[in-house]
Amino acid sequence: MLKPITVRITPERAAMAFVILASALVGRQAAIGMDTAQGLSGLAAILGSSMLVVMVKSWPKPEQVKVRAGRDD
Question: CA 5 to CA 13: how far, in whole Å?
């Protein structure tokens, strides 16, 4: 059921959407009013989601392994 959705959304796009969502939520709450601790927590959330994008982009792709088919003895 979820396979068509997960095939279309690449991990890079999902991570980018997470950064945009986190930034929008923190920006909205900052506009309403935040104290210092909440502002620093929001900044940490944005930096954490940005680090997720960097990890997804720099993570090595899995190598294809050739499997030799043998007979069962």
Answer: 13
